[in-house]
Amino acid sequence: MADALPEQGVPAQEILDELCALRRADQPTHGGRLFAYVYDPGLAGLDDLANAAHAISAPVNGLDPTAFPSLLAMENALVGAAAKLLGGGPGSSAPDVVGNVTSGGTESLILAVKAARDAHPSIVAPRIVVPVTGHAAFAKAAHYLGVRLDAVPVDPVTLRPSAADVAAAITADTVLVACSAPSYAHGVVDPVEEIAKVATAAGVRCHVDACFGGWVLPYLRRLGADLPPFDFSVPGVTSISVDLHKYAYAPKGTSILLHRDPALRAPQYFAFGDWPGYTMINPGVSSTRSGGPIAAAYATLRRIGDDGYLRLAATTREAVQGLAAAVEAVDGLRLMAPASSTVVCMTAEPGGPDLFVLADELTARGFHTQPQMHYGDLPASIHLTVTAAVAPHVAEFATALADAVAAARPLGPVQLPAEVLATVTGLDPAQLTGDVVAALAGALGMGGEGGPLPERMAVVNALLDAAPVAVRERLLVEFLGLLQRPAFD
């Protein structure tokens, strides 16, 4: 790695060449072969437009909208578009909906929890009720904000929580009930109407985490998909989060948090004037905000338009149906849930292939998937986030999947070294120091001359799957700490 602060400045083209060389080690962000982390509509010229828009507004600071009204105008326009899409605005059941652009889904969820917590300052130990399939960002919000998270189980077949279990989890200290539309892991829309009803009966806010699918579900419904109501048309839904950098296909760094009315949003703000400087007032976690992501999102929405999003949703739906059929056609695999949104989630039948080996075999065939660990009675699985760019590759994926399963069968199940397995299952997480984790990584072929990660990840994933949750978390914390070290020349 080159020195980030050389004695003499480096020519611009040389720097750009260095960046391009570094990017060649990354997963492909375009082309429909990466089923997680990125969202590709497959539209020519969209990146160039978004990058140009980003450059125009990158120097703008969202800290003070009176100094930079252009950013305020674009943010309000984005919020209005999201509100209209999700059942709010003039003429709707939520005519006074308000909102803000955030840096991503995690910030949106943190702010939803903050607003609910701060609306009840008399509650000393606030709690939130979240299905176990709710995004991990709720746990992060609870951790950051000092809120207790009460997890609600889901049915092992439908993968949905019951409203009765949600109601039973609500206490006098509950400030927020959450549900997903859809859940990230399995692509299942929770019973929002029923959950919102029990939240309303208890006098508690109900947040719908639609970060993942909120921008595409309304279009899928217009195309005839049988999806339950989840937006502001549902009485009792008090806030909704939706990411623009997912199925609105905007560049990374834009999500929207909507509240049904301004009074519900008010506790989201942070204001402070008890110091000699300017009085700080922020709607989000960050104070300084670059206008670049907001301008890029604004340009993206304007370029694609409502009709364009409907076409992209139709293309995505066809891809989902094709991928789901490919899974169902392979002996030894099954869908975790009907593929009714934009997720295809598969698991193995008894006697089927080792899923972690299967993920490696798919990678070897050019398709990068996301393995998921088992959870309670729910088996390990492979998650596919499907975008419009996947559609041209469905037939190719079907062939690759069948071939990968055939190759995985004789290679699995993964056998972990006995001493390694004993270490991860028997250790107190506090004993997992950096040195211990480095030794484990070395035993698994990680951190050598070939780089920090082996080419095949099945053994690593099997180890993480075998480890108790607290040990798994500590393993990853320490391993990430080993990776994130300053580079000195």
Secondary structure blueprint with pairings:
Blueprint: H1 12-23, H2 46-57, H3 69-85, E1 98-102, H4 105-118, E2 127-131, H5 136-145, E3 148-152, H6 163-169, E4 174-180, H7 192-201, E5 205-209, H8 217-222, E6 239-243, E7 255-259, H9 262-265, E8 270-272, E9 280-282, H10 292-328, E10 333-335, E11 343-348, H11 355-364, E12 370-372, E13 381-385, H12 394-408, H13 418-426, H14 434-443, H15 458-466, H16 469-483
Parallel strand pairs: 2-3, 2-4, 4-5, 5-6
Antiparallel strand pairs: 1-7, 6-7, 8-9, 10-11, 11-13, 12-13
Question: Can you tell me about this structure?
Answer:
The protein is α/β, with parallel strands linked by helices and 489 residues long. Among the domains are: 55-274 and 283-299, Aspartate Aminotransferase, domain 2; 418-483, no CATH class. 40% of the residues lie in helices and 12% in strands. It is built from 16 helices and 13 strands. The strands form 3 sheets. It has a 7-stranded mixed sheet, with helices on both faces. Strand 2 (127-131), helix 5 and strand 3 form a beta-alpha-beta unit. It is globular and about 60 Å long. It starts with 11 loop residues before the first helix and ends in a 6-residue tail after the last helix. The model has no long low-confidence stretch (mean pLDDT 94).
